Amino acid sequence: MEKWRATSNLRRSLKSILNRQLSTVSEFRYLNEKRSCQSSFNLIRDCKSLGQVNAIQHRCFSSASTLVQRNPSFSTLNSDDISYFKGLLGEKSVIQDEDRLETVNTDWMHKYKGSSKLLLLPRSTEEVAQILRYCNSRCLAVVPQGGNTGLVGGSVPVFDEVIVNVSSMKNIISFDKVSGILVCEAGCILENLISFLDNQGFIMPLDLGAKGSCQIGGNVSTNAGGLRLVRYGSLHENVLGLEAVLANGDVLDMLGTLRKDNTGYDLKHLFIGSEGSLGIVTKVSILTPPKLSSVNIAFLACNDYSSCQKLLMEAKRKLGEILSAFEFLDTEAMNLVLHQFDGVRNPLPASMHNFYILIETTGSDESYNREKLEAFLLSSMEDGLISDGVLAQDINQASSFWRIREGVPEALMKAGAVYKYDLSLPVEKMYDLVDDMRIRLGDLAKVVGYGHLGDGNLHLNVSAPEYDDKILEQIEPYVYEWTSKHRGSISAEHGLGLMKANKVYYSKSAETVQTMASIKKLLDPNGILNPYKVLPHSLNS
Known about the structure:
Blueprint: E1 3-5, H1 8-18, H2 35-49, E2 56-59, E3 66-69, H3 79-89, E4 94-95, H4 98-105, E5 119-120, H5 125-138, E6 142-145, E7 162-165, E8 172-176, E9 181-185, H6 190-200, H7 216-222, H8 229-232, H9 235-238, E10 239-245, E11 251-254, H10 268-271, E12 280-287, E13 294-302, H11 305-318, E14 323-330, H12 331-340, E15 355-363, H13 366-382, E16 388-391, H14 395-406, H15 408-415, E17 417-424, H16 430-441, E18 446-452, E19 457-464, H17 469-475, H18 478-485, H19 510-523, H20 537-540
Parallel strand pairs: 5-7, 6-7
Antiparallel strand pairs: 1-16, 2-3, 4-5, 8-9, 9-12, 10-11, 10-12, 13-15, 13-16, 14-15, 14-18, 17-19, 18-19
């Protein structure tokens, strides 16, 4: 590993150096709830015991406490329901064990917790269809679940909804090496698909920090973005077809494998990003690009955000078709990763910098791609855009660079309470929000900025030792208002889930939201699929 610095002497010798180098009623609540909320939960429990509260739940994740009411039209589970599901799926696929239910009732961040008493593990599309047909006839609410790695409370119950987890549906159905089209079931873990394709000489167009747990059905249902969207686009571009089961048990076979199909409405796009609220995705057809032989990773430092922007512009112009990732993190994010993980080292250890950039290039000609990257780095350093940097010489060094970027979310979790905001913003405005939040919060909390600079996706995180009303009141609704003012999106890739269901108007017009609600009513008239999520609660009642 060779390092280079922005000094006049090093500029003169940079080329020679470079040539040597080569991410009921539930007890639904924040698990890390603020102390001030505890009395409210106690009051609700007391009222429940007196029979005075019917399905009203208190939440403390927004600046104004929110009441969530259980839809009174939903039935409650009974022994006849359990018997039916055991007859359909078998004893082993009908889970009532409290320890296992504790896990699937709780989200990855340990913020949201439902009180479902039943987990179902179907093994086929037909079993999913029969489950939903029965639940719809009984008006039993359902939560579709995959790897449960979501960040907005979308994959866990709010109350006592039946959990339908597709993790047993994990077969790869087919792979065409000529076209690169993969067809698989929804429960396939993303990392397993990546490994399978690697052995075939192909790659997944999607790569996430949670790839070891997340499942492709959940990825599609949330339209997950990830680390290489700048190169391969979103799942709307890569998913060629899918199979989905509607609330009434009807199976929509849209599992096409054609690049071109202009026969009517392309309904698959309704299910990509709908978070299981319109149907349960059971199979996916996805276009995968060939694995290219030349991959290079550079880890760079910039003095200011303006330099990061200019570096991105130059990378798009000069690296063009070989640019596959352009990630950024600020010094607060770097500090968190270094302090929370043993064995993680700053590739540029001499001093801390204000911003760090990870650039990945992927191509088919090693010498051409290397030369192109080196020329870009040389000119960027001469222009003063880069203050320090390092190129990975082997896969271990490349992995260590990615470990820093992918480790930020987990480092934030380890540090204590974290308020997470996943925003799309004009690139030139992205870091202005981070600066504004630091002024607003002062010494109350640390503000961390990182994300996918290449596609304008900021992950704004506020880190504190514990959750505090004073902090939240300074964050919300300011963050949403700021984003809306700059015509951004309050959800770039994480979805709306429960956390942002009532916030959708910051990004979508009333007419658009009403049309979304009409589609929901058409496909799920009883509203049993993932209730209380995606759409404002006023439209779900």
